[in-house]
Amino acid sequence: MGTTSFAMAERIEADRAMPSPFVHLHVHSSYSPMQGVPSLETLCRTARAQGADILALTDTNGLYGAIRFLEVARASGIKPILGTELTYRTHRAVLLAKTPAGYGNLCRILSARHDEPAFDFTATVAQHRGGLIILSDDQAALTEWHRYSRDDLFVELTPGPDMAETLAFSRRSGLPPVATNRAQFVAPSDYQLHRLLRAIAMNTTLSRLPGDACCRPTHWMMPAADLARQFPHVPEALANSRHIAEHCATDWTLNTVSSRRFDTSPRLRPSTASAHRLTKARTSGTEHSPLQSLRASSMNSPSFATRDMRSIF
Q1: CATH number for the domain including 109?
Q2: How many CB atoms neighbour CB 48 within 10 A?
Q3: Which of 16, 44, 82, 183 has a CA that sits 20 to 30 A from residue 286's CA?
């Protein structure tokens, strides 16, 4: 083999060893009930096959698959980022745990989301955003959060008809953009499974399923090279995904996460039913940490009852 061939081989090996400049920070699994398609094993296997070294799990309004994700990701050689896509009425944002304290705040926000009848999306996130990184294209919420601090606040850019307007907002507001693909499945062919799940959730037929009930067919776990072609005019959005990933905690342990404890101060008033359940558990000596409850629940189907999902937090 000549000198040129050796140099080319060394370059190929070096490219393989280098981490991808893009990291998937908005990813759903089957723990986003009646929405996300892939299992955690499929997600991690796909990420590894694409050369990823870090992956976020951001299921909708919950951390239902978090414990299993930590186990599967590490077994696959993936560093796990814990997060959620918080949605409420017309609002949405991806919240990523930057620190253990941020994970605690993430749980507080989710508790309020599920238990507070008068849940205020923007105010609750603003109150408990310490230790969290926020990605969103919700311009009203971003504007409000920006009033208090621009730290760890990013404008989420996803390829589609709204991206130009969202990018314009990013440049106008001075908030940095970050690329995501809002992955609900790992391959384009899985879109039909996503549609089927949505039809079941809405108790309708595929032929009558509203178009806005589903994500876009392009919302799959696209390889970094393919996604980069969607951002030739804003490469910093791709670089920011790596920057964010490297600033998020990934060395989670069961003890670290389960040691989070949550107060019941006026900042977060639980519902009467929740308070009664908590008091009863404490007096009977059967109280479990949020993570212990989560681990027990994650052993079952991700479609367990909403009431049981709420009790996790």
Answers
A1: 3.20.20.140
A2: 15
A3: 82
pLDDT tens by residue, 112-170:
999 999 999 999 999 999 999 999 999 999 999 999 999 999 999 999 999 999 999 99
Domain annotation covers residue 281:
yes
What is the domain extent for residue 183? 19-312
Answer for the pair 109, 95: CB distance below 8 angstroms, yes or no.
yes
| Radius of gyration of the chain from its Cα atoms, rounded to whole angstroms | 20
160: left (phi over 0), alpha (psi -120 to 50) or beta: left
Which tokens sit at 83?
């997060």
pTM over 0.85, yes/no: no
User: Distance between CA atoms of 122 and 131, rounded to whole angstroms?
Assistant: 16
CA of 130: how far to CAs of 23, 48, 101, 140, 255, in Å?
Answer: 22, 31, 7, 20, 21
**β-pair partners for 133:** 96
Instruction: Output the DSSP codes for 139-165.
Output: HHHHHHHHHH--TTEEEEE-SSTTHHH
